[in-house]
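User: Sequence for Helix-turn-helix domain-containing protein below. Tokens please.
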Amino acid sequence: MSITTFTPRTGIATNKEVAEYRRMTTAQLAQERYLGRGPAYIKDAGGRRITYRWEDVHAYIEGSVVTPRGAA
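Assistant: Structure tokens for Helix-turn-helix domain-containing protein:
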């Protein structure tokens, strides 16, 4: 197993970019929003375009980490 270096992305991400990053479809991402789950997002003034701040995406992923009992 190789170890890779993680460099967090910054700025604003599109719906498609976040879906690809999280290895899911845009429909699954939309379903998360509908259910009130997933990372925080930004809705434009018209309510049609959804974007994400990368910092929110990274924070959501970090907050979803589960450490099994007995792990060091």
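The mean pLDDT is 90.
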